[in-house]
Amino acid sequence: MTEPVVGRRERKKAATRQAIADAALRLFLERGYDQVGIRDIADAADVSTTTLFKHFSGKEALVFDQEQDVDAGLVAAVRERVAGESVADALRRYVLAHWLPIAGHPQRAEFVALVDTTPALRAYYEQMWTRHTGTLGAAIAAELGRPADDLACLTLARFVLDIPALTSTRPDRRAAVETIFELLRDGWNERTG
Amino acid sequence: MTEPVVGRRERKKAATRQAIADAALRLFLERGYDQVGIRDIADAADVSTTTLFKHFSGKEALVFDQEQDVDAGLVAAVRERVAGESVADALRRYVLAHWLPIAGHPQRAEFVALVDTTPALRAYYEQMWTRHTGTLGAAIAAELGRPADDLACLTLARFVLDIPALTSTRPDRRAAVETIFELLRDGWNERTG
DNA sequence: ACACAAAGTTGACTCGTTGCACTTTTGGAT
DNA sequence: ATCCAAAAGTGCAACGAGTCAACTTTGTGT
């Protein structure tokens, strides 16, 4: 095994961060986002508010501590796709396999409910996705040997990243995802249902 | 001429609102968004901060006073399209005709620069667009005799509303818009440039 | 053992935004 | 003409998020 080179210092730092994130999520779920102040969280984690803000950029960031690397999975899905599979298909497979199950989890449900019912969090969450457009677009372009800022690739990336917003309120999320990917593959067709 | 039915009351209210918006835009352009406080604007317009917030929902809204009814034009374009024209074509025509020229205007340039260089304004602006997804999607669906929350229609609406974000940094914005509409019409094609 | 840097504390401060109690204005009904 | 209720505006105090500067504590490398 590789001995972790991290000393007590970094471990304590990570512990503090975790304590803050845990306290925040617990309080948010208990009382609701708007009913919890930064000072409440800081007190619960037994740190000062200044320390809290050295670990997290803002109140919203406390909620999304875990889901930082959204694009990593997408980029990997595009790069390590099976031979002959198109980029769009790889993305479709990844989305169906990784984005749908999350909503089913028991504890994830109340987390999703928290985000959905809090406008500030909805807004922050949506922006999280669109912020990854550049990364995913560049990855797609690289696979196809096009320039990193190729418009078509960026557009595909953006459209794929729109999927969560478009499907979140649908009764059958899987069918919704399929519908959107069909539209992406075949284009907008006025005459079919 | 049609005598304006508005009394002194509404006229004064409108004047106050305009004074606030003018003062705000002037100060923002002079010093930059973050260097201007709400109290500065209220003072410049000679009103109290309370009054200011009765006219505008927040600091960002002061900047976008003029471009409220984004969706009205889009909805009209879809509804009053020429016979036989597809919804997608109508949207393409409207976007090419109405969204492109704006960027060319002289004073509009520094306004755009202000928005582009201020993260808070960029975020607010992007959300303005996506907020119209429901309206435009419903309008498209109505034209095609589909349910108002038809997923394909909402998706098309969303994708069209993504266009400003995708094309704003492009050297040739017209070509960029055309490219995206081609992608929307024909679907994502891996093999063509 | 020592010195330096990173982590944390404290308290006051800025700034957007809201609430409350109050005055002024104005349109309409009597 | 007059009076009233609603709308518009004011002043001020407050709240919560986030920042700042000076200071203390705690690891770490030498």
Automatic annotation (TrEMBL), chains A, B:
Keyword entries, A-Z: DNA-binding, Transcription, Transcription regulation
Organism in which the protein naturally occurs: Paractinoplanes ovalisporus
Domain HTH tetR-type, first and last residues per copy: 14-74
Residue ranges the UniProt entry marks as DNA-binding: 37-56
Name recorded for this polypeptide: TetR family transcriptional regulator
Taxonomic lineage: Bacteria, Bacillati, Actinomycetota, Actinomycetes, Micromonosporales
Pfam families: TetR_C_14 (PF17754), TetR_N (PF00440)
UniProt cross-references to PROSITE patterns, sorted A to Z: HTH_TETR_2 (PS50977)
